[in-house]
Design a protein that fits this description.
single chain, 2 helices, about 100 residues, mainly alpha
Length: about 100
């Protein structure tokens, strides 16, 4: 027979698995954005070296993409994926009436 403590332990284990999966997803997102930023920076360096050209509008779009991806990395890194260190304890049930 399952006890309330068993239910709490099962919930905690399932929740930790969810948080671990979320953490892995956030890491993948950050890694992908960082890789994209690297490619954008390589393109910008190529343009600066004169081996490629972009219109002013294209350059503005590229600059905006770089800023947006950097903001996403910051936002993803700020999400707390740590499970709570303790589970709140429910108050004791009222005593049975005397009699």
């Amino acid at each position: 027979m399952s006890t309330p403590a068993d239910a709490v332990q099962n919930f905690a284990a399932a929740e930790q698995a969810n948080l671990t999966a979320i953490g892995k997803s956030l890491t993948a997102i950050s890694t992908g954005i960082t890789a994209l930023d690297t490619l954008i920076q390589q393109l910008q360096a190529s343009i600066a070296a004169g081996t490629s050209t972009l219109s002013a509008a294209d350059q503005a779009t590229l600059t905006a993409l770089t800023a947006a991806s950097s903001a996403l990395v910051t936002q993803a890194a700020a999400i707390n994926t740590t499970a709570p260190s303790s589970v709140p304890v429910a108050p004791a049930p009222p005593a049975a009436p005397a009699g």
